[in-house]
Design brief:
InterPro entries: bZIP, bZIP_sf, Leuzip_CREB
Strand content: under 5%
Number of helices: 10
Number of strands: 0
Organism: Umbelopsis vinacea
Shape: rod-shaped
GO molecular function, one term: DNA-binding transcription factor activity, RNA polymerase II-specific
Keywords: Coiled coil
Structural class: mainly alpha
Protein name: BZIP domain-containing protein
Length: about 280
DNA sequence: TCCCAAGAGCGTCATGCACT
DNA sequence: AGTGCATGACGCTCTTGGGA
């Protein structure tokens, strides 16, 4: 089921079409025309802009959902109890996704797989109530091929099983294409999210890298200045290191000390320069 | 205003993998 | 072996921005 079906009247029509295999070709200028196969329809259909996709998440209309469920029952020959209908209604409204409602309706019409984003305790209760026949998740943990779960003596289950067996090759093909269409959308969404996440991570790490570099430079400058001041801990330690080096004949740390001294001198001259520059600016 | 290239989104097909 | 899912590849359409 396309994620951008805008309302539940569309769901109703969509479920009917997918069940009967019929195609819409009269309203090819409709904004929903991408539901039809572009290659099969002569006039080009408008693509879905990002703003159009936002319609898919609009709030559910309970009355429209009821209408869609009723229609789906009529189409499939299923008879749902009031409790089952209530469960679907609750679930769809809790999730606020029309495509989820559509998936439920579709699952009700025929025992094809249910999208992975339908997992919830309510979904399981739907399954327990024989409203749907398969649970989302790893594909082969559930019966995706129309076989019934559990005791199998339910009239609904038999109807669904018979319905599944009666599929023509063309109907099977249409269902496969539908599932693949949904899978492709899901896959692209997943990939896009992954790339977005990676880009955000890169930005965060670059920012942190910059901050740490700056922190390190500041600490080095502070240490260099500190080591120049007699009586400071740094100065005392540097002297101690110098004496030890002299005893050991080790030039490495002396070199570090010298660099520290040079850095300190540089910082002092820079500060003096800044002071004179400020003074000049103030005088002009 | 028209044209064109680039980019985004979509549907479909092919393929590999996992599961029964 | 059969089936379904995930995903890369391909071609198509549409949108958008820039140049003539």
């Amino acid at each position: 089921m396309p994620a951008d079906v805008h309302n539940l009247a569309e769901v109703e029509r969509y479920v009917k079409e997918e069940t009967t295999g019929s195609k819409r070709d009269a309203d090819s200028d409709s904004e929903h025309d991408h539901l039809t196969h572009r290659k099969a329809s002569a006039p080009p259909s408008p693509s879905v802009s990002p703003s159009d996709e936002n319609h898919a998440t609009s709030p559910l209309n309970g009355a429209a959902l009821n209408a869609a469920l009723t229609s789906a029952q009529n189409t499939s020959g299923l008879v749902l109890t009031a409790e089952q209908q209530q469960q679907i209604l609750q679930y769809a409204q809790a999730n606020g996704q029309q495509d989820l409602a559509a998936s439920l309706a579709n699952a009700m019409v025929s025992p094809i797989s249910v999208p992975g984003n339908l997992s919830s305790t309510l979904l399981q209760s739907l399954q327990a109530a024989n409203v749907i026949t398969s649970l989302p998740g790893p594909p082969h943990l559930s019966n995706m091929d129309g076989q019934v779960n559990g005791d199998g003596d339910s009239e609904h289950q038999r109807k669904r099983a018979n319905n599944s067996r009666a599929l023509t090759d063309d109907e099977r093909r249409q269902r496969r294409l539908l599932r693949n269409r949904m899978a492709a959308k899901e896959c692209r969404k997943k990939k896009k999210n992954y790339v977005q996440g990676m880009e955000e991570k890169i930005a965060r790490l670059e920012e942190e890298n910059l901050r740490l570099r700056k922190e390190m430079e500041e600490a080095n400058a502070k240490l260099a200045l500190d080591s120049m001041q007699e009586g400071s801990e740094s100065y005392r330690l540097m002297k101690e290191v110098e004496e030890l080096n002299a005893k050991l004949g080790h030039p490495g740390l002396q070199f570090i000390h010298n660099v520290g001294q040079q850095l300190g001198e540089l910082a002092q001259s820079q500060a003096a320069e800044n002071r004179s520059s400020d003074a000049n600016t103030a005088s002009t």
